[in-house]
Target: N-acetyltransferase domain-containing protein
Amino acid sequence: MIIPLLSTSIITERLLLAPLIPADNDELYTLWSNLETTRYLHSPKLTAPTMVAAVVEAIAADPYFQRFSLRTLTDYTLIGTVGINDCTAKGIEIGFELLPRYKRQGYMSEALTAFLYNIWNQTDADIYAKVDTANYASLKLLESLQANRVFSTKEYCVEREETVDLYYYILEKKEFSYQILIQLFYI
Model:
């Protein structure tokens, strides 16, 4: 499988998507320590700003993991991230999170549309997302992007020390409609 390397920034009508850099660490701590933002993430809780530096370094060192900051073009505030969590034979796993005050304004739809477009400029691989069944906002977002729910499962989440119910969604390049691509240019 070709691993897409998205090393350049992506600009949409309202957002700048840029690879994470150490200068992002303070704002990333605000994002990744927010309990509402991280409720459905399967990652360790960040209890100190110094932990963010280790996460950003680990992301940079892993060729299968890429993360982009989402910044508003109006004031360059970091409002979330989107990225590739893994590349395997079954496809490319994506993940995303957004600060609560920016939800329900179309930011993540705009970011994911541009992000998927850029991935599919480099590969035909299917893209998938694992979503907690209680995460209604992410479920609706993926369905709005024409993702297909393919199955549900239970997985033990070490970080939360509990079993969680997950839906797996698949996004196929051929199903990614022309209407979605038009959004990139006419949002």
Notes: The mean pLDDT is 86. The CA atoms of residues 13 and 187 lie 7 Å apart. Residues 10-186 form a domain with the Aminopeptidase fold (CATH 3.40.630.30). The first strand starts at residue 10 and ends at 11.
